[in-house]
């Protein structure tokens, strides 16, 4: 059976970025997509259908999801199995709408080199966070983090973990005991994933008001705590919080973020998460223009 890769994602109200995200993967040679939409209220689905019209050679499976709770692992795992069966694919790439594949150091590598690596059961890509730098078009890279993204050869014993970064294999050992291990593959040093979670004050508002209630419906320890913490800050400060916090992130000062969180009573664990997840490091100089994704 030949190697084929399907990109899978669970999205909600990502109308400002989903078209560029899909175009980015298309530019890297990916032609199979499975998208689960969690009852978006903006132009997200219109943008997905626009992508389909732009690219007749891409196959896009769209699944509607109306369950308003944070069940990302369960939903994306089910989507992965559906996509494997629907497309007769071998590997899955769980991605988020705010993530973009990028060659490291502007190398000329294209997706066929990425697909060639799929003979492995799993490969990983470095993952780092970015933030809006110039009127919502150019993005400035932040620090490299310890997070990675994993692409895996699918089997029914796999579970996509919450966060869409990794997968866990369930198996039976020689004693008949059920065991679980996280899939680990070699790191592809020529590629990385750029993560752009905050793109404007309005988008930050939408993300917080969507993300926190889902956590309230179905709480999981340690999952989505940053969005719940941000929702608490919104309740404390009102509508001005979104623009104030967005401006703070743009300034990129770790000491300023720490002082703000201390003043607001944010727990230390959440502050550490904010630093990893949101805060830009202006020493980095790599940029990506999302508009260029649509022009290719």
Secondary structure topology:
Elements: E1 5-11, H1 18-27, E2 32-37, H2 44-54, E3 59-64, H3 72-87, E4 91-94, E5 99-103, H4 111-116, E6 122-134, E7 138-153, E8 158-160, E9 167-172, E10 178-182, E11 186-195, H5 201-217, H6 225-237, H7 240-251, H8 254-264, H9 268-277, E12 287-289, H10 290-295
Parallel strand pairs: 1-2, 1-4, 2-3, 6-11
Antiparallel strand pairs: 4-7, 5-11, 6-7, 7-12, 8-9, 9-10
Helix pairs in contact: 1-2, 5-6, 5-7
Short description:
By secondary structure, this protein is α/β, with parallel strands linked by helices. Helices cover 38% and strands 28% of the residues. It folds into 2 domains: 5-196 and 286-295, Spore Coat Polysaccharide Biosynthesis Protein SpsA, Chain A; 201-277, no CATH class.
Task: Please tell me about this protein's structure.
The chain is an alpha/beta fold and 296 residues long. It folds into two domains: 5-196 and 286-295, Spore Coat Polysaccharide Biosynthesis Protein SpsA, Chain A; 201-277, no CATH class. Helix content is 38%, strand content 28%. It is built from ten helices and twelve strands. Strands 1, 2, 3, 4, 5, 6, 7, 11 and 12 form a nine-stranded mixed beta sheet that branches. It has a three-stranded antiparallel beta sheet with strand order 8-9-10. Strand 2 (32-37), helix 2 and strand 3 (59-64) form a beta-alpha-beta unit. The longest helix has 17 residues, at 201-217. It is globular. The model is unreliable at 282-286 (pLDDT under 50).
């Amino acid at each position: 059976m030949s190697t084929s890769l399907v990109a899978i994602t669970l999205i909600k109200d990502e109308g400002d970025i989903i078209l560029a995200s899909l175009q980015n993967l298309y530019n890297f040679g990916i032609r199979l997509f499975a998208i689960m939409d969690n009852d978006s209220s903006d132009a997200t689905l219109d943008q997905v259908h626009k992508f389909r019209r732009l690219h007749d050679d891409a196959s896009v499976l769209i699944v509607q999801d109306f369950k308003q709770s944070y069940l990302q692992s369960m939903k994306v795992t089910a989507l992965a199995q559906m996509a494997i069966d629907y497309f007769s694919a071998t590997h899955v790439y769980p991605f988020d709408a705010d993530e973009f594949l990028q060659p490291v150091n502007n190398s000329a590598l294209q997706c066929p080199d990425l697909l060639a690596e799929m003979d492995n059961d799993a490969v990983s890509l470095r993952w780092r966070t970015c933030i809006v730098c110039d009127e919502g078009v150019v993005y400035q890279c932040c620090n490299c983090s310890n997070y990675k993204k994993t692409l895996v050869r699918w089997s029914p014993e796999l579970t996509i973990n919450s966060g869409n970064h990794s997968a866990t294999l369930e198996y039976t050992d020689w004693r008949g005991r059920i065991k679980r291990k996280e899939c680990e593959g070699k790191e592809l040093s020529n590629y990385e994933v750029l993560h752009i979670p905050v793109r404007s004050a309005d988008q930050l508002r939408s993300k917080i008001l969507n993300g926190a209630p889902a956590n309230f419906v179905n709480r999981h320890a340690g999952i989505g705590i940053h969005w719940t913490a941000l929702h608490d800050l919104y309740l404390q400060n009102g509508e001005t919080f979104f623009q104030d916090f967005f401006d703070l992130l743009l300034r990129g000062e770790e000491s300023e973020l720490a002082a703000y969180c201390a003043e607001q009573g944010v727990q230390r664990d959440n502050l550490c998460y904010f630093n990893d997840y949101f805060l830009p490091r202006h020493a980095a100089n790599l940029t990506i223009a999302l508009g260029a994704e649509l022009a290719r």
